[in-house]
Specification:
Layout (H helix, E strand, L loop, with lengths): L8 H17 L2 H17 L7 H9 L4 H7 L1 H7 L5 H9 L1 H4 L5 H12 L8 H14 L5 H15 L5 H14 L5 H7 L3 H7 L5
Helix pairs in contact: 1-3, 2-3, 2-5, 9-11
Protein name: TATA-binding protein interacting (TIP20) domain-containing protein
Organism: Cucumis sativus
């Protein structure tokens, strides 16, 4: 890990893709006490490739909830501010692995402002990942953020050029309706026929 800064991008990528398997073969205490902190630091300071995120979450799964929150979560929160598209994509793809550990304050103040840029990304894949991440994150958002930001983004996605994104936006609105206050809920209420038509689908 200490000499990774001397490696080129291909070598780094290869190393980090193999790391989850290699970590399984090493003594658990060495991984958690030595390798995990180095990996977290490498990700934070940009010397680790995007595949390192998978390794970080793999190692993090061996920690208790309290240790995960102390040793892994701070790095994850910082990574949401990354301009690296691959890092952003990886975070969204794995959000179900750590989303529940994020506090409402973390999501509202530190995570969502960065994730929200994905709603208007030029990549349809990233727009859809951003949309799907709201299944995990929307319940942790404040009413102010939901009504002042999230619903505006979802309104635009309802007319997205991609049919799958339009459909999943409608599904998401139905799923998060219970988290909206009464006034907002009425505003975004969907026709019963629309909900019936997609009730068998999942976001």
């Amino acid at each position: 890990m200490e000499i990774l800064s001397l490696k080129d991008s291909v070598e780094k990528d290869t190393f980090f893709r193999k790391l989850p398997i290699l970590a399984e073969q090493l003594p658990r205490q060495i991984v958690l006490k030595k390798l995990l902190p180095l990996l977290a630091s490498s990700l934070e300071f940009g010397s680790a490739a995007a595949p390192a995120l998978t390794a970080l979450l793999k190692m993090g799964s061996w920690l208790s909830t309290e240790e995960f929150s102390a040793k892994v979560l701070p790095t994850i929160v910082k990574l949401f501010a990354s301009n690296d598209r691959a890092i952003r994509t990886g975070l969204l793809q794995h959000i179900d692995q750590f989303g529940e550990s994020l506090s409402s304050q973390m999501v509202d103040e530190q995570v969502y402002p960065h994730i929200a840029t994905g709603f208007s990304d030029t990549s349809a894949f990233l727009r859809e990942l951003t949309l799907k991440s709201m299944l995990v994150l929307a319940p942790k958002l404040s009413q102010r953020t939901i009504s002042g930001s999230l619903l505006k983004h979802l309104s635009k996605l309802q007319v997205d050029e991609e049919p799958a994104i339009r459909t999943n936006t409608t599904i998401l609105l139905g799923n998060i309706a219970s988290y909206l206050n009464d006034g907002v809920s009425i505003y975004v209420k969907l026709p019963a026929a629309s909900l019936t038509a997609i009730s068998q689908q999942s976001c």
